[in-house]
Amino acid sequence: MKNIVLFGPPGTGKGTQAEILKEKYCLKHISTGDVFRYNIKNQTELGMLAKSFMDKGDLVPDEVTIDMLEAEVDKNPKSKGFIFDGFPRTQSQAEALDTFLEKKGSGINGMVALEVPEDLLVERLLERGKTSGRSDDADEGKIRNRFNEYNTKTAILKEFYLAKGNYHGIDGVGSIEEITARLVKVFDLL
Ligand code: ADP
Predict the structure, then answer these.
(1) Which atom of ligand 1 is nearest to the CA of 89?
(2) What span, in angstroms and rounded, lies between the C-alpha atoms of 57 and 152?
(3) How far apart are CA 136 and CA 160, in angstroms?
(4) Which DSSP string do the residues of 140-157 spell out, in sequence order?
(5) Quick one: angle between helices 45-56 and 140-149, nearest 10?
(6) 3-state DSSP: the chain helix, strand, coil percent, rounded to 5?
(7) Which tens digit of pLDDT belongs to each residue from 52-88?
């Protein structure tokens, strides 16, 4: 299996790139944000629970997120591998993911991180908010809170994967095609 964590702060373009890369490598793309939004739209119990956190730009509690992610993986038993987008976002999630994949005789091949300066990201998200209909893109306060969550809880995961020799940073500034080409160079080696 090829399991890759696509990593980076909000607005780096992980979703866009994952959609392209999943086709090229025949992998299943799991975006935790998309799964939560789907559940909110369909007013499931999970959606109702997640909504209160997401609307503020806070992370959804680990237990809820981990259970959901494992269920998504288990829905695709025949997959050649996964692109994880938006997961893990905390150290507990990263540890849970390792344990979960180990039980399946698998693991994470690498974390591939899109590196983009924060100011540029805030601009992009405010722009996206004009059309995305996402409540968490709607105002700068919520966006800043998402970066605060990222900086305090998620950014440390770079260290977690660096320690395993599994971290690959990529310049995330450029055209979609340029960034895909940079990602492909790393994906091919993983
Ligand atoms: P972005 O990366 O653009 O902020 P996502 O669509 O990946 O957006 O996630 C949107 C929201 O969904 C997050 O702000 C958070 O509330 C929730 N969420 C997504 N993934 C996780 C996760 N792994 N752990 C906790 N909350 C999550």
Answers:
(1) 23
(2) 13
(3) 28
(4) HHHHHHHHHHIIIIITTH
(5) 100
(6) 60, 15, 25
(7) 999 999 999 999 999 999 999 999 999 999 999 999 9
pLDDT digits (tens, 9 = 90+) for 5-19: 999 999 999 999 999
Ligand 1 atom closest to the Cα of residue 9 is 2
Within 13 Å and on the Cβ side, how many CA atoms surround 161?
27
Q: Is the CB of 53 under 6 A from ligand 1?
A: yes
Ligand 1: residue of 59, 122, 137, 150 to mutate (most ligand atoms within 8 A of CB) is: 59
Catalytic, 146? Answer yes
CB count within 10 Å of CB 24 equals 12
CA of 86 to the centre of ligand 1 (A): 6
